[in-house]
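lol ok so funny story. i was supposed to be doing the assay writeup but got distracted and ended up predicting the structure for this chain instead. priorities right. anyway since i did it might as well share w the group, maybe its usefull for someone
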Amino acid sequence: MFTPDQYELLDFGQGRKLERWGGYLLDRPAPAADAPCGRGEDVWRRADAVFGRQPGREGDWTAGGALPGHWLVRHAGLRLELRPTPLGQVGVFPEQAANWDWIQQQVEQFVAQRAARPELLNLFAYTGASTLAAAVAGASVVHVDAARTAVAWARRNARHSGLDAAPIRWIVEDAVRFVRRELRRGRAYDGVVLDPPSYGHGPQGQAWKLEEQLPSLLEDCGKLVRERAGFLLLTCHTPGYGPRRLGQCLRAAVRDQQGQCEMGELKLATGDGRILTSGSYARWFGRQ
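and the output, tada:
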């Protein structure tokens, strides 16, 4: 997890969250934060930047202080670049930090048990924190994202983290097409990680709709790890896809393989223990 000096959820409520990223306070939307705020307005007024959006338009950041164009935060030896974007994101999803730790543990265990370098496929890989968590632990990683800007951002994170020479293949491609091509090539992986959006488009405009395409993609990912009795990690921020449903999706995709599944919620906590649920995860293990 992040140490408090690098990331802290200060408060949430009324559809927003107040976070401290390093030395900067950001106030931005959080649809799941439907409860009343836990702290007074004086805390929220200290934000260095506030993100707002008009219906049907991209949003913008209103800076109340000297917010830089980008800055870095640390997590378990990684250095990750933050940038305020027109969608209200900053390049890092802090609720995923527990999964980065889990990925690193899986790779370290594999290396210790087999004295070999595992191969991991990261789909919808965004700015690369999962990729780098695997690489720093000793994995060879194929990093796939449809957005060229996201892949470039991930490569900068690798450079910031001293991993620019790590065995990582950086690929701008549609995830569905890439996985199908890997199957035709007879490729196999020790683990597959994917964090698909609700909707999206590939580099050539290919449409992605999670509701329609997730089952077949997961089945193909199951085939990629079948030979090596690997693992699958699926995370999702889409409403209606809670832990139980994600677990069902994974089990259906690997129904003819031996293994076990665990699932849960992606969470952030304030210092006083209030919990903001920010998505779900499911993990399938092909090896006992």
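Residues 97-114 form the longest helix (18 residues). Residues 246 and 282 are 6 Å apart (CA to CA).
back to the writeup now i swear
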